[in-house]
# Entry
Amino acid sequence: MLETAIIGGTGVYDPELLEDVREVTVDTVYGRVKFIAGSYQGTEIAFIPRHGSDHGVPPHLINYRANIMALHQSGVKNIIATAAVGSLNYEFKPGQFVLADQFLDFTKNRHHTFYEGGDQGVVHCDMTVPYCPELRQVLTAAGQEMGLKINNGGVYVCTEGPRFETAAEIKMFKMLGGELIGMTSVPEVCLARELGMCYANISIITNFAAGISGSVLTHSEVVEMMQTKITDIRKLIMAGIKKISAAKSCTCASILTENGMNQ
# Structure
């Protein structure tokens, strides 16, 4: 049974890592989703390339609701998501990994909830700790065993994209407490939480943000940094997955009963 999923760029998934690889198609009320599933040392894992198999879907047009609902309908309880981010914190340098624990949402045109009234009802979901502390802890432990520097905690600022941010925007985000800048974690984490799924974000810092880096930002430098870190990312994710306990102590799943949901 599928219980854990990886959401990330196509480079994160390596067919040689999984056995019994198959393509799964799931129909949801938000659209049809295709993803890869397979087995890793006895653990069933799903993989969704967030931007499509050809990286052709920009961040503001991703069907986040369909992706999360498809995983939920497939029985997934844990999601480990990767994201290439810029840094607003001089202590978070290019090449480092940060596990976001909070976010600031500056997206504009996305569907942020499954509950928009009508038949779905209205739910005000708690977001005090949006990123699962238990998944973050197992990833931290896995990283330490690998000798990787993992920062457990960081404020992720999510912008609409696909453009990069202005230097003035970065200055504002930094004043508000932002430390990481990206375009994909929201509403992904919010939707997962609404369904009681444990969600962790591995932010891979590819560059310093606008006005901090001192140079023009390009997508090519993001891709280049990701390529240098892809082996470590894969190993970290797989080692972390093996550490996930079936009897977790986090309260992520209880959000369902606390909000009167019966999924």
